[in-house]
Amino acid sequence: MELWGLACLAVLAAGLGALSVIDFRTGYLPDWIQILLALAGIAALSIGSPIGVSWTSGAAGAALNMAVFYGLRWLVSRMKQREAMGLGDVKLVGVGGLWLGPWALPYIMAAGGIVTLLGAGVAGLITGKPVWKGEMPLGPGLALGILGTFIAALFKVPFIDLSPLP
Fold first, then answer.
1. What is the pLDDT along the chain (166 residues), one digit of tens a residue?
2. Angle at 50 between CA 44 and CA 55, to 5 degrees
């Protein structure tokens, strides 16, 4: 493992960890931390992504992730007739796409959904009240999905293929 990969992992983990704690406590994902993570992702792409993400893949990942999540936000908000997901979540998956490229979206979404549902279940067991009738922050689950996918790619887990676009 190269020092550059560990440095990128440390920056990504620190930023995503801070966002997760803040979102869990306040329901808000601050733009300034997301901007710093995006700038760090751009720096990583400029120097050379330790997981092999190209500029094209990073840009495509950011655009695709944000488009998919903005579409989900719009659709679910229309169905529920109220805001269903904050724009912070849309921006967070965009940052994740910048770091990971477009092929990471299924991993981010799967981990985000599973972790959020498990968190709601644990919170419901602790409080004795069903959480699904209220709000549960999605940011920590998405952050874990982004971080977990980055770690898997960094350690070359065989089933994680984030091959860059040409």
1. 699 999 999 999 999 999 999 998 888 999 999 999 999 999 999 999 999 999 999 999 999 999 999 999 999 889 888 887 889 999 999 999 999 999 999 999 999 889 888 887 887 788 777 665 567 788 999 999 999 999 999 998 887 877 766 6
2. 50
| Domain residue ranges of the chain, discontinuous segments joined by + | 3-154
pTM tops 0.85: yes
Q: How far is 5 from 32, CA to CA, in rounded Å?
A: 24
d(CA 65, CA 95): 9
Residue pair 17/36 in contact (Cβ under 8 Å)? The answer is no
Is residue 124 within 8 Å of residue 4, measured between CB atoms?
no
DSSP state of 136: -
CA distance 13 to 70: 24
Distance of CA 121 to the CA centre of its chain: 21
Which residue is it, tokens 């959020």?
116
Which H or E element spans position 114?
A: helix 105-127
